[in-house]
Amino acid sequence: MMNVERCLLCRSFAIPAEQRTSGVMKGPVAVVLMLLLNRQLVTARVLKQTEPRNYDYTMYHPLPEIMAWMRKIETENPEIVSTITYGTSYENRDITLLKIGLNSAENKKAIWMDCGIHAREWISPAFCQYFVKEILHTYKTDAKVEEMLKNLDFYVTPVLNVDGYTYTWKDNTTRQWRKNRSPGTGSCIGTDLNRNYDFLWGTIGVSTDSCSIIYPGPKANSENETRAVVDFVGARSKDILCFLTIHSFSQMILFPYGHPNIKDPNYDELTELVNTAAKAIKAVHGMNYTVGSVTETIYPTGGLSMDWARFIGIPYSFAFELRDKGEHGFKLPEDQIQPTCEEAYEGALSIITYIHDKTFHSSAVSVRATLWTALLASWLTSTALL
After folding, report:
1. Nearest alpha-carbon partner for 69 in 132, 134, 162, 113
2. Which of 52, 74, 104, 124 could form a disulfide with 115 if both were Cys (CB 3.0 to 4.6 A apart)?
3. Alpha-carbon span 248 to 115, nearest angstrom
């Protein structure tokens, strides 16, 4: 039987009066129409899969859609965008970034941004996608953005923890998964990738229980995802000016260090910089972001990617904790994606613009970074941190 009211093709056929009255079709006509309708639905599905569609930045997207979006961005902007696969996850998924920058004959400086290091923080990958969209949308009309793309390359990884992120899309029981999906050496699966970096690894703010969400792994840099970042960023550390890692939630902008006995020598400058970024964020939708070093603002922690980046000589390193402050937590509603991204974009752009302008007017940044790395390395070898 077929419901006449739901059959679009029925309008083209003469339906017997008794079937129009009952609303249900029977017999040979119904069979023919059912076959035609099935063909129509299959055709519609095929067209939906093959026709290009506008990407919706106000929705959360699973990893296959994000990867397809990256390929599309590269195809539509070949003069400024390229994709680079720089690692493979435990479950054999590609770890891929978008390189964005105008061609230059000179060796360029760079900005690093990664999103989705923690699987359940869906607003983070959404922000990376929004950031890319805005940069590509504005550089042809905004002279400042164009200048920065001439001097800088942006390395943007929309989803770093590709296995964990995929797992959070499985069903409601996996939505809150945080770690990656490697088995490690314990009884439970997964390592907290943001406790796995080789800077004060395992010293503070972690758990040796493999079932804990802050389990740092069996050793520093043990995870595929961590090693991918370490190899890629480490090889370019002299050129990368800023390391940005995007998280949620709690509305914060953080800078190194996660250990209470270490204070960045640029503390005052960093404090001023994140305060300015917080003001830029608040100017968009009135949201307040707390700012400060990790130990002052959240809690002491070792093995952070942000701290590692600073230690290897990258002059500026920050972590953004996006909306909200706990009402929805990691399940931020989709109607908050756009306002969250809009405000965070202004905050990130504030930091990037400052670093760009300072770098291309003074060589003090690179000199100070090199000196600080040497001093810190020497200090660490002679000081007990625990």
Report:
1. 132
2. 124
3. 10
| Residues classed as catalytic | 321
**How far apart (Å, rounded) are the C-alpha atoms in residues 10 and 17?**
13
pTM score: 0.81
The answer for residues whose C-beta is within 8 angstroms of residue 220's C-beta and 6 or more apart is: 196, 197, 198, 201, 202, 303
**Placement of tokens 């991918």 in the chain:** 228
| CA gap 159, 252 in Å, rounded | 20
Angle between helices 63-76 and 123-138 (to 10 degrees): 10
Q: Are 121 and 179 in contact (CB under 8 A)?
A: no
pLDDT digits (tens, 9 = 90+) for 357-366: 999 977 544 4
How far apart (Å, rounded) are the C-alpha atoms in residues 91 and 163?
A: 6
Residue carrying structure tokens 């802050």: 214
Taking the C-alpha atoms of residue 276 and residue 354, their distance in angstroms, rounded to an integer, is 10
Question: Taking a C-beta distance cutoff of 8 angstroms, is the pair 150, 102 a contact?
Answer: yes
Q: Tell me how far apart the alpha carbons of residues 282 and 289 are, in angstroms, rounded to a whole number.
A: 8
Question: Which amino acid, residue 257?
Answer: Y
* Bond prior to 55 in cis (omega within 30° of 0): no
> How many angstroms separate the CA atoms of 61 and 24, rounded?
39
> Read out DSSP for 277-303?
HHHHHHHHH----EEEEHHHHT---SS
Q: Say which residues have a Cβ less than 8 Å from residue 117's Cβ, sequence separation at least 6.
A: 124, 160, 161, 193, 194, 225, 245, 247, 305
Reading the block at residue 73, the tokens are: 């961005």
- Write the pLDDT tens digit of every residue in 56-92: 999 999 999 999 999 999 999 999 999 999 999 999 9
Residue 316, Cβ density class (10 Å: 0-12 exposed, 13-18 middle, ≥19 buried): buried
Q: Residues 346, 283: contact at Cβ < 8 Å?
A: yes
* Pairing, β 252-255 against β 290-293: parallel
Q: Which long-range contacts (CB under 8 A, 24 or more apart) does 204-211 make?
A: 204/258, 204/259, 204/300, 204/301, 204/302, 204/385, 204/386, 205/258, 205/299, 205/300, 205/301, 205/302, 206/301, 206/302, 206/303, 210/184, 210/185, 210/186, 211/186, 211/187
Q: How many Å apart are CA 235 and CA 233, to the nearest integer?
A: 5
CA-CA distance, 203 to 206, in Å (whole number)? 7
